[in-house]
Amino acid sequence: MATLTLSSLDKKYGGFHAVKGIDLDVADGEFVALVGPSGCGKSTTLRMIAGLEDISGGQLRIGDRVVNDLPPRDRNISMVFQSYALFPHMTVAENMGFSLKIAGRDAGTIDTAVKEAARILEIEPLLERRPAQLSGGQRQRVAMGRAIVRDPDVFLFDEPLSNLDAKLRGQMRTEIKRLHARLGSTVVYVTHDQIEAMTLADRIVIMRGGVIEQVGTPDEVFNRPASRFVASFIGSPPMNMAEAVVTAGRALRLEDGTELPLPTAFHVAEGRRVVLGLRPDDIYPEGHGIHSESGHAVESRELPVMLSEPLGNETLLFTELGGQSWTARMLNPRSVKRGELLRFHLDLSRAHLFDAETGLTLR
Ligand code: ATP
């Protein structure tokens, strides 16, 4: 069974604590994405799993084996790097078969494995080329092919698509998803791209400063973020955040004194300092929303459009309320002039509330 278990896994570089005793169980066949801002420890965690980095404390298990002190080649994992790390002097076929050759497999076995991987990735016509004769996307496929031929228990991906342009990144994302569906292998995938994480992963692990902030399905981390940090990290454009104080009349008083009703679902004491979070999807000009407008705690305000960004099937509108800027999403767009006043709906039934001090979600 290709399960992966991290128990109090810890990494110190000299005096610097990069990964602070994290716990994570990855099920057999599960696709888990590690996300977080630069320096949060996601690559270090992946490199500890790969055996490329010593573990300072805790335990790492693959299946029922503790692998803390096992060299990378004995862990039965394959890693795909951002840089592809192909050997320039070898052909595609030689690159793909290299690890099997090192492992002492016979030529026939290697040939079969390479051809099978090439067929899956649709790179059969490229087998005799060298890396310099390939496009970025083709190189990435070869790097994946090299990982596949080893038939590993666990695939590790370290930002594999970040060197590709946006269009190719989208295509390769679909490719990786298809591959995972086909091979059913356990995957740990590091990315700083939350869209990649949302579209690919069964579960997302959000890291910050060497600790795990939240682990959840894409739906959970998007709709039920555990903290302000997770809420701002997941979702594009990011969630609007406004500092507020809860008043005696169960309202949220924003910075400039503007009041919005406190949604009934929240039980928060008067005087408490909070942060109101509302996704751009939940602020929209009347008649142009993503959600149905009936039966919600919709607050309606006439607000100015400061800026609009047409994106084809939708337009992002930037407006002002409570002394700050808010991003709104307008579906079925029409042209909007700068300074135009529109009736915006704020669907407060979908609002999030965070403690202003701790950043933790309030319910
Ligand atoms: P990025 O998205 O920028 O790659 P990351 O989340 O993958 O970031 P890591 O590479 O895991 O971050 O690094 C975590 C922290 O550990 C960073 O603050 C980094 O500077 C530090 N670090 C990484 N490698 C070393 C090292 N060899 N020696 C000292 N500090 C290191």
Automatic annotation (TrEMBL):
PROSITE patterns to which the protein is assigned, alphabetical = ABC_TRANSPORTER_1, ABC_TRANSPORTER_2
- A Pfam family matched by this chain, by name? OB_MalK
- Is the keyword Ribonucleoprotein assigned to this protein? no
User: Matching InterPro entries, A to Z?
Assistant: AAA+_ATPase (IPR003593), ABC_transporter-like_ATP-bd (IPR003439), ABC_transporter-like_CS (IPR017871), ABC_transpr_MalK-like (IPR015855), ABC_transpr_MalK/UgpC-like (IPR047641), Mo/tungstate-bd_C_term_dom (IPR008995), NA-bd_OB-fold (IPR012340), OB_MalK-like (IPR040582)
The superkingdom listed in its UniProt entry is Bacteria
Q: Which UniProt keywords apply?
A: ATP-binding, Nucleotide-binding, Transport
The record lists the membrane-crossing segments as none
In this chain the ABC transporter domain maps to 4-234
MF (Gene Ontology): ATP binding
- Member of which family? Belongs to the ABC transporter superfamily.
Q: What is this protein called?
A: Sn-glycerol-3-phosphate ABC transporter ATP-binding protein UgpC
The organism encoding this protein is: Alloyangia mangrovi
